[in-house]
Design goal:
It contains 5 helices and 3 strands; from the N terminus they run H-H-E-H-H-E-E-H. It has a 3-stranded antiparallel sheet with strand order 1-3-2. The protein is mainly alpha-helical and 133 residues long. It has a domain of 85 residues: LOTUS domain-like (Nucleotidyltransferase, domain 5, 2-Layer Sandwich). Helices cover 34% and strands 8% of the residues. InterPro entries: OST-HTH/LOTUS_dom. This is HTH OST-type domain-containing protein. Pfam families: OST-HTH.
């Protein structure tokens, strides 16, 4: 309706400056992302306890796990779920990439050795050699 009004006023040669400018607002369909809302939306940091649990899980699995299996294994082992949106991230991949020593390939989550001491964290504690001393 608005487009028709603007076109007809242009054809008549009148000025459109009296009308409000057209603006576009991005609309995101439900379930396809959008602005991240929640308690950690501004700082984007994963709590230390969740970081330790993630490191324990990865170290116990030989340093890597399939990305698709990560969430189910985390929930099974710790009785809670890793919800990336709760920590200010739009998706699991971004949250995992923010963790120290963790990297991703196409389909796997990898735990690398500590940059300070060169040791892979202990599966029982989630701490490396330099953090336990």
């Amino acid at each position: 309706m608005r487009k028709i009004t603007l076109l007809s006023s242009l054809r008549q040669g009148s000025s459109t400056s009296a009308e409000a400018p057209l603006t576009t607002t991005p609309s995101v369909p439900p379930g396809l992302g959008g602005p991240v809302k929640g308690p950690g939306a501004g700082d984007r940091s994963v709590p230390e306890g969740v970081v330790r649990k993630t490191v324990k899980l990865l170290a116990g699995r030989g340093g890597n796990i399939r990305l698709g299996k990560f969430l189910s294994e985390y929930e099974k082992k710790f009785g809670s779920s890793f919800v990336a949106r709760d920590y200010g991230f739009g998706c699991l991949r971004l949250a995992l990439l923010s963790l120290p020593g963790v990297t991703l390939t196409t389909d796997r989550v990898w735990l690398w050795s500590c940059r300070s001491c060169g040791m892979i964290p202990d599966p029982a504690t989630g701490l490396c050699k330099c953090e336990t001393v």
